[in-house]
Amino acid sequence: MAEQTAIAWCDATFNPWWGCAKVSSGCDFCYAEAFDHRTGGDHWGPRRTPRVMSDRNWREPLRWQRRAEETGVRRRVFCGSMCDWADKNAPAGQRDRLWELIRATPDLDWLLLTKRAPNIARCLPGDWGEGYPNVWLGVTVEDRRHGLPRIEHLRRIPARVRFLSIEPLLEDLGRLDLRGIQWAIVGGESGPHARPMEAAWVESLQQQCDAAGAAFFFKQWGGRGHDKGGCAIGGIEIKQWPAIVRAAVSAMVPPSMVSAP
Ligand code: SF4
Fold it and tell me: How far apart are CA 187 and CA 167, in angstroms?
C-alpha cells in the first residue's frame, strides 16, 4: 500500500495481499517478484502462500476516502501492484474483503488490472450488476498470444470503464478490436532486462485509439536508463484519460498534461 506512487496513471496503490505466479511473457521480469525477494519475501510461484496484509493496510483507503469526501477530489487507486486481484490462489476471504472495502469507498476510483482475464467474471461480487460506479476493469496486453484473448474476456464484462495496460509492449499487436474499450495505457519495458519496443508499434496503437475514440496514455519508451526512455512522442507527452473523468483530472494536473482523445 502506498499513498504516493511512481505509477503515472494512478494516485495510490493498494495491495489486498502479496504474492502471485507467472502466467505469461509479460511476467518474465516481474518487478513485484523482484521487490518481494529484495525485501526478504518468498511469495511467488504456484505453490507459495501469499502474504496476508495487516489491518492497518486495510484501513488506509478509508482514510483516503475521508480526504476525498473533504476535498471533493476523487483519487485513482491501482489495486494489486504486488498481486493479481483475480488470482484463484488469493488468500481465503481476502477478495470478499476487498469488495467490502471498495463499497465503503465510493469516492475512490479503483483500477483493477489482471492478466487472468478468464477469472474476472467469477471473481466479481454478486451485486456487480452493470458494474460498480467506482471500479475500472483492465487487462494486460503485452503480446498477441496472451493479450488479445484477454480483450475479448474484458469486453464481455459490464464495467464503468474498461481499460488496457499495453505494457510491456513486446511486439506489434496488429489490428485491435477496441469496441467497448475506453482507455489504453502503453509503455515499453524498463529495467536491466528490458526488451525493446519499436516506435511503429506505438504509432499503430495511437492511431487505432484515435480512430476508435479510446483515450491513449503513453507512459514510457522503456529501456535501461533511469528515465525509462522518457514519455514524449515526437516531443509531445500524450496522457489522455477516459471521458468520464477527464474534467476531474483536468483540475488535478497541469493542463499541458491532459488532452482529449
Ligand atoms: S501477473 Fe503481475 S504480479 Fe503476477 S507474476 Fe505476472 S507480472 Fe508479476
Answer: 5
- Measured from the CB, is residue 162 less than 6 Å from ligand 1? no
| 5-9, 87-91, 244-248, 250-254, range with greatest mean pLDDT | 87-91
Tens-digit pLDDT profile for residues 1-42? 455 566 778 899 999 999 999 999 999 999 999 999 999 999
0.90 exceeded by the pTM?
yes
End-to-end CA distance of the chain: 31
Q: Are 185 and 9 in contact (CB under 8 A)?
A: yes
Between the CA of residue 46 and those of 19, 20, 50, 89, what are the distances in Å? Answer: 10, 7, 10, 8
> Domains, the chain, ranges and CATH?
12-257 (3.20.20)
**In 104-217, alpha helices (H):** 120-123, 144-155, 199-212
Q: Which atom of ligand 1 sits closest to the CA of residue 114?
A: 1
Q: Which helix (H) or strand (E) holds 68?
A: helix 55-71
